[in-house]
Specification:
two-stranded antiparallel sheet; single chain; alpha/beta; disordered N terminus
């Protein structure tokens, strides 16, 4: 992606413009800069350094939160994602279920039914399955009005200069960008999810009741965090839990819950 990116089609730009207008009408526009507070003498009060403030966090499935450095995905950051699509569906559900807005770009195989079963509101997910020759440009436009944008690169590589521009826009808009299916230089956080096993399957028969994922989280600095999540049906929807909690909910011994599969 070192050459100048091609322009999005007219139909795509019109659709994105309609999205912006709809978001503005619903009060979902990004707020303008805050007015600096004034001290007693009428001068601008000292500004607290950003490092001393707790950064805003995007919600994630509760079982995933303990593995993340700040208990969620930090707004204004870029996350590099590899592995199972089930967790991507869970992240979309965690954002849109409480009323947030998200977009999925360049991910024709995204499991929207799985996301809905996890509690996602499909009317709050903007999907551009075929983003044309330049999905990065489409994602850049969608950052204007979304809390979360999931971008599939289709095996492509984003040049460092262009990645810096999009990362700066992500920070400025207070959104979170998840990049998957390609190469992105130096993301703020790397998240990997590998299928570790299933339950419910016997010797050639049975129905899948749960899926286990091995999770690894790597920040820019620090020791990688590793753990395991289980997605299983509960109360008419799919819930995420730690393996022991899921076993207790199902009334099964932990050692009997998981059937390992080759990675």
């Amino acid at each position: 992606m070192t050459a100048r990116p091609p322009k999005a089609s007219g139909a795509q730009l019109r659709e994105l413009a309609q999205l912006r207008r709809a978001r503005a009408a619903s009060g979902g526009c990004v707020p303008g800069p805050a007015v600096a507070p004034r001290g007693e003498n009428g001068l601008s009060a000292p500004v607290v350094p950003a490092a001393g403030l707790r950064r805003e966090i995007l919600p994630v499935p509760a079982a995933l939160a303990p593995l993340l450095p700040e208990g969620g995905l930090v707004k204004g950051t870029v996350v590099g994602y590899t592995g199972a699509g089930a967790l991507l569906a869970g992240l979309l559900a965690a954002v849109t279920g409480p009323g947030g807005h998200a977009a999925a770009v360049g991910l024709p195989g995204l499991g929207l039914l799985a996301a809905a079963e996890m509690g996602a509101r499909l009317d709050r997910i903007f999907v551009v399955a075929d983003a044309g020759r330049d999905p990065v440009e489409v994602a850049a436009v969608l950052l204007d009005g979304m809390e979360l944008v999931v971008l599939g690169l289709g095996g492509g590589t984003v040049a460092p200069a262009r990645a810096r521009v999009l990362a700066a826009k992500t920070r400025g808009k207070g959104a979170t960008l998840i990049v998957t299916g390609g190469s992105w230089p130096a993301p703020d956080l790397s998240l990997e999810a590998k299928v570790s096993g299933y339950t419910g399957l016997g010797a050639g028969s049975g129905r899948i009741r749960s899926i286990g994922l091995d999770i690894e989280v790597r920040a820019e600095s620090g020791v990688p965090q590793r753990g395991r999540l289980v997605a299983r049906p509960l109360g008419g929807r799919v819930e995420w839990a730690a393996p022991d909690n899921a076993a207790a909910a199902d009334g099964l011994a932990p050692e009997r819950r998981e059937r390992s599969v080759a990675s």
